[in-house]
């Protein structure tokens, strides 16, 4: 009973302290505590550049040989010599293989002998005719004898012409025993070996020769690009660039040769053919490559790093760093993306600063800290690694 007043007093003091604390914390008359500003987000930034920008139409095509010839034999005979190695670069007229020439040379010798015999007979017949003509004038020879002799001379002359034709044909056949390259090019896989008999009817012939310098590229573009291509072709030859399949390595630079004479209705595309000097032989028949047709050059075009462009529900946008150091979302129109650079049609001005890396932590009005030098390189590398991880 003596402790009860002490306990009551302690409870009163405790309740009073709690009430004072609650009034101190929650009393609206007290000034509000200052809000803590959001921390700045580190980003990598870049400037909007202004310069002349080439405008390309992009397509995918297949490399084909400028000329391609399967070397066939026009005569039959055993091959006595192979004069090339597979994959060898050859010139027009180079010997590729030799067919046994002896049978064809013997035929020439036989026809030559026949021709010489007929020539001798013609000389004799002409001499007789020359003797008969004076005798006819004096009445010592009949007109029938002279006419018969003239007919014999004419017959022998025709026979000699036939002999000459046969001789020419035999000489042509002899020339066919030398199988030569009809074009400059590179030989493929040999289809017949030395010692075998080759025939004109052989499907694969001796070898395939492909001309690769120059070389051609057949590629396609959407049919709606045809008016633009036609308009630019009227101004002069158009340049075409060939790139590797990953679009990173430039293989060669050439010229547009022609646009096909009809649009492919099933695909809605137009076929084009370009030629390349192919000095380094980086283009090879059958290869699939990316083609860039240069159709125009944008004077004073605005470009930014392609990584700065983001995609949202309303289209493309970038984060522009405002003068107050905050990120401002800006919708943009991208004309093309080439070599990691985006050509901007609208939405930006020259020399504005945009975020090129670190956008995933940004929102409208987020304060940013622009990284410089080594820090920027490390941040870009870390971002690339994160994007590569599935």
Task: List the main descriptive attributes of the protein structure presented here.
390 residues, alpha+beta, conserved putative lor/sdh protein from methanococcus maripaludis s2 fold, Elongation Factor Tu (Ef-tu), domain 3, OB fold (Dihydrolipoamide Acetyltransferase, E2P), 4 domains, six-stranded antiparallel barrel, four-stranded antiparallel sheet, 5 helices, disordered C terminus
The description of the largest β-sheet is: 6 strands, antiparallel, barrel
CATH class of the largest domain: Mainly Beta
**What strand line-up does the widest sheet have?**
2-9-12-11-10-13
Structural class, please? alpha+beta
Number of contiguous helices: 5
Q: Compute the CA-based radius of gyration.
A: 45 Å
Spans of at least 5 consecutive residues whose pLDDT stays below 50 are 20-34, 385-390
Pfam families: Beta-barrel_RND, BSH_RND, HH_MFP_RND, YknX_C
Domain YknX-like C-terminal permuted SH3-like: 302-370
GO molecular function: efflux transmembrane transporter activity
Family: Belongs to the membrane fusion protein (MFP) (TC 8.A.1) family.
